[in-house]
Amino acid sequence: MNAPIVAVTMGLGSDRPRFRIGQAYVSALEHAGALAIPLPHTPFTIERAETLIETMDGLLLAGGTDVDPVWYGEEPHGRHKPFDPDRDAFELALCRTARSRDLPILAICRGIQVLNVATGGTLYQDVSEQPAPALLHEQTAPRWHPTHDVAVVPGTALAEILGVESCRVNSFHHQTVREIAAGFVCSAKASDGTIEAIEDPRARFTIGVQWHPEDLVQRSPFWTGLFEAFTAACGVARRPAG
Ligand code: MN
Hints:
- By secondary structure, this protein is an alpha/beta fold.
- The protein has helices at about 25-30, 45, 50-55, 85-100, 110-120, 155-160, 215, 225-240; strands at about 5-10, 10, 20, 35-40, 60, 105-110, 125, 150, 165-170, 175, 185-190, 195-200, 205-210.
- The structure holds manganese (II) ion.
């Protein structure tokens, strides 16, 4: 069986030099029938991002640390998690190349922020900078436990995949999408106005979510649909034209 090959981006270990990947991403993709391939970020791979993505059928931009605001034209203010400049450069390059080839992209947590910044959008450096008082977006409850609602925007690809008007999600972010990139639409919002999902309606499959569906799917089969839809789109992308 030909499983679509999905590139999954990685983080850095905090204790000593190591790359790491959340098992939940791999597990969620494998259950949906995709082969997850972790891609480390180094100056060497940054230079070869275009070549690397050509060998893939889809891109999963994983969660992780904050994006350096220099990428959307701001100085850092407030609190920040440590920047990972190589990861920023690598993911932005992967994302732009994937988009130029209309490869399916599923962007999760930090991933939605990378996707938005790569395509010209901006971020709130902290949820407290939003106009309305923010909900709790950095939950301390277990990762599989959803803690706030999102309203899913009718008519979007996300609404079609999930088949609901609202759902409850987990939340592990302190930054969030501010101005949505041109051509993208909001596909889910929290009650405090936080943009929780975006998508490109013209793309084959380009969806970013601010929550972590890979951690929800272990307890809630409802979330398998998102990974299956992504994998199906990757399978179509893989098929040679004509
Ligand atoms: Mn949230």
